[in-house]
């Protein structure tokens, strides 16, 4: 019996913890372990290598993924999916673990339908935008990276009586922005889940400035495309000396937190246990209320994740 692991789509801290646990745990189970390099592109091109402990030694502290990742336009074409399937058969691989997000799981769902691939997904994205799981691998480290940046921005904002507009990642999900705004005490938070009311923001901030506020921190989710509009409001309508900071890809990198490492281990163990008991799986491991579970890929990719009502209610307290 042989299993393989690969990464697909954007990178996230904790991937290396999952990769290391995959190799260590399969060896413990007496199962051959394979590493697929360069994601879906590597699967198409046959970049598959039998794993040894040396391949994963000393990688837990590293961000990114030692087996790398990719996005693949070729995988949309049947001939390349068939080529990928033939590569799995060439190495007699019976099960596949994929670290990825919504797009990766959609690709795997199609792959499973056509070739009956025994597959388990691990939700891995700093955006935390995968339906059915409270937590995706990499989120904790990304939030701590944002928190560190915001703490430093607060220092200069308060010193110079400035407004700072900070754009964070998240695609169409406002989770990173919402949690960062709540935990940093930001005055403004703009996320896709809530309609942005610029006149109301202007009215509230004007009132606070007239009553002693000296600086403003606004957190804007990239998916809203409202970063410059918020900056213009603060600069031109409220007269604040305003700076825009786009944190960008630093949110994806860096040393994984202890929590992301531990969750990388646990997600992988759950995935491997399920593969052992299945011959035709199309499941994603999920984590809710402190417990692990499994969801069909179709359920995951057919629904949209959003910031939960509890966190939205906490955001309302910023008003």
Structural commentary:
- This protein is of the alpha/beta class and 319 residues long.
- The protein folds into two domains: 2-138 and 256-301, Rossmann fold (3-Layer(aba) Sandwich), CATH 3.40.50; 140-252, 3-Layer(aba) Sandwich (Rossmann fold), CATH 3.40.50.
- The chain is built from twelve helices and eleven strands.
- The protein has helices at residues 15-29, 39-45, 53-56, 78-90, 102-115, 139-160, 175-184, 198-210, 227-237, 258-276, 297-301, 309-316, and strands at 2-7, 32-36, 48-50, 95-100, 119-123, 162-168, 188-190, 216-221, 241-246, 282-288, 291-296.
- The strands form two sheets. Strands 3-2-1-4-5-10-11 form a seven-stranded mixed β-sheet, with helices on both faces.
- A hairpin with a 2-residue loop joins strand 10 and strand 11 (291-296).
- Helix 6 crosses helix 7.
- The chain is elongated, with a radius of gyration of 22 Å.
- The chain starts with a strand and ends with a helix.
- The model has no long low-confidence stretch (mean pLDDT 96).
